[in-house]
Amino acid sequence: MIEVRDLVVGYGDEPVIRGVNLSVARGETVVLMGSSGGGKSTLLKAIAGLIPATSGSVVIDGIDARSDGEEARRRLG
């Protein structure tokens, strides 16, 4: 399960996404749609831990991807 709560992500001082909430159950298929430049890739990069979030939480299978450290993210694959 992936739980995203009140996620804010940006580049420098400029937020790209603000207050995103998303819940994806194991085995569920979700489509992320939006206009070019709307923050789709930024959201996915933040969920994957490739770019830092300014605030909010990303919990994957009970592990907080933002605060549980790099080793925890590695275990998630």
Overall description:
The chain contains two helices and four strands, in the order E-E-H-E-E-H. The protein has 77 residues and is of the alpha+beta class. A four-stranded antiparallel beta sheet has the order 2-1-3-4, covered by helices on one side. Strand 3 and strand 4 form a beta hairpin. It is globular and about 30 Å long. 14% of the residues are buried. The model has no long low-confidence stretch (mean pLDDT 87).
Can I get a quick summary?
Helices cover 22% and strands 38% of the residues.
Radius of gyration: 12 Å
The side-by-side strand order for the widest beta sheet comes to 2-1-3-4
Instruction: Please provide the ordered H/E string of secondary-structure elements.
Output: EEHEEH
Quick one: biggest sheet? 4 strands, antiparallel
Estimated share of beta-strand residues? 35-45%
Total count of helical runs of at least 4 residues:
2
Shape: globular
User: Which structural category do the helix and sheet elements fall into?
Assistant: alpha+beta
- Average pLDDT, rounded to a whole number, is 87
Percent helix among the residues?
10-25%
Assembly state here? Answer: single chain
User: How far is it from the N-terminal to the C-terminal residue, by CA?
Assistant: 14 Å
Q: Count the beta strands.
A: 4
Q: Which spans have pLDDT < 50 for at least 5 consecutive residues? A: none
